[in-house]
Write a structure and sequence with these properties.
It is a single chain. Helix content is 39%, strand content 13%. The two termini are 30 Å apart. Helix 1 packs across helix 3, helix 6 runs parallel beside helix 7 and helix 8 packs parallel to helix 9. Helix 11 links the parallel strand 8 and strand 9. The protein has 3 domains: 57 residues, 434 Repressor (Amino-terminal Domain); 126 residues, Response regulator (Rossmann fold), CATH 3.40.50.2300; 123 residues, Rossmann fold (3-Layer(aba) Sandwich), CATH 3.40.50. By secondary structure, it is α/β, with parallel strands linked by helices.
């Protein structure tokens, strides 16, 4: 037995009557919205619904407009891509959109042009992970965002600043929570590790939260902000030695924490297990303690509202993502 209208109705979550009207080309005369019509036709196409046995449904004979959100990730093999993808796909389907993924790992020297080519797929919005953008290409990327006619939503900082559509984490609060957590565990010598450029918005806010926590605990005499200065993006033995001797520290760079762990394994050495780092997606297993994170996967509906120009009043009021404690074993919720 073939796919029936009842099957399409069940999959789309709509009534059989509504589905029947759409599939029999009576949507307009019955004032069924374009969004609902699009959802039904997309589900019907997905299920290979073909109408009666004597003829195909007319809607299948006409070109279908697919509404698609493009997701550009740093790498398909990154720490979060395999786990966040099902959540993204489910959230897109929920609002009647398809998702199209692309990785720019093999095109790092010209990231901005890669994004430009991606827009030629006639997609309706882009969600972009800017973590691998260099300084030079960040400038081209910002110009590209201004030129394209579709919404582009960066998941974080671009060229050390937030763009109007960026998903903004409350980094100061995160730095405070991370430090306060370690202090509550009895550590009186907590360091803060920041990236190569100490005065970026990211590092400034994160370290400010760190200082806030030390001031609250009357421990400002133990302020220890360490700037990571890599040579060709490689951890030096001197830098690792300065880190390995720390009893506890906070760090906002997922990449740096991973590199520290890799370096330690190769050198058969250890770093402190008392680490708190900021997780945008899902925490790593390098630290044993709970971690304050910005679970973007829990806010994917908000990300998609920005990518489809459907920003609501709540989005306007709550510009920054509020951090919350999540653990290394914290799994992804059902979409």
């Amino acid at each position: 037995m073939g796919v029936t209208i009842k099957d399409v109705a069940k999959r789309s979550g709509l009534s059989i009557t509504t589905v029947s009207l759409v599939l029999n080309n009576k949507a307009k005369e019955n004032r069924i919205s374009e969004k609902t019509t699009r959802l039904i036709t997309d589900v019907a196409a997905e299920l290979n619904y073909s109408g009666s046995n004597s003829r195909k449904a007319n809607y299948l004979e006409k070109p279908t407009k697919y509404y698609t959100i493009g997701f550009v990730v740093s790498s398909y093999t990154s720490l979060y891509t395999p786990e966040i993808y099902p959540r993204i796909e489910a959230c897109c389907r929920k609002i009647g959109y398809f998702s199209l993924f692309a990785s720019m790992y093999t095109c790092l020297e010209n990231e901005a042009e890669y994004i430009k080519r991606f827009t030629k797929y006639h997609i309706d919005g882009i969600v972009f992970d800017p973590s691998l953008l260099s300084k030079d290409t960040s400038k081209r990327f910002i110009q590209l965002v201004a030129d394209v006619k579709i919404p582009v939503v960066p998941l974080g900082l671009v060229n050390d600043s937030f763009l109007p559509n960026s998903i903004q984490p409350d980094l100061r609060k995160a730095g405070y929570m991370a430090t306060d957590y370690l202090i509550s565990k009895g550590f009186n010598n907590v360091a803060c590790i920041v990236g190569p450029t100490k005065d970026t918005e990211n590092n400034t806010l994160f370290s400010a939260g760190y200082i806030d926590a030390l001031e609250k605990a009357k421990m400002t005499n133990s302020i220890n902000i360490i700037q990571f200065s890599p040579i060709n993006n490689v951890i030096s033995p001197e830098f690792f030695e300065s880190i390995s001797s720390l009893p506890a520290f906070i760090i906002s760079s997922e990449w740096l924490l991973k590199e520290l762990s890799v370096y330690a394994n190769k050198a058969n050495q250890k770093i402190s297990e008392n680490i708190v780092y900021i997780a945008n997606f899902r925490p790593l297993n390098y630290a044993q303690n709970s971690l304050p994170g910005f679970p973007v996967y829990l806010n994917m509906e908000r990300v998609l509202r920005k990518a489809t120009n459907r920003i609501d009043e709540k989005d306007k009021k709550e510009k920054a993502l509020v951090p919350e404690f999540i653990s290394p074993t914290h799994g992804f919720p059902d979409a």
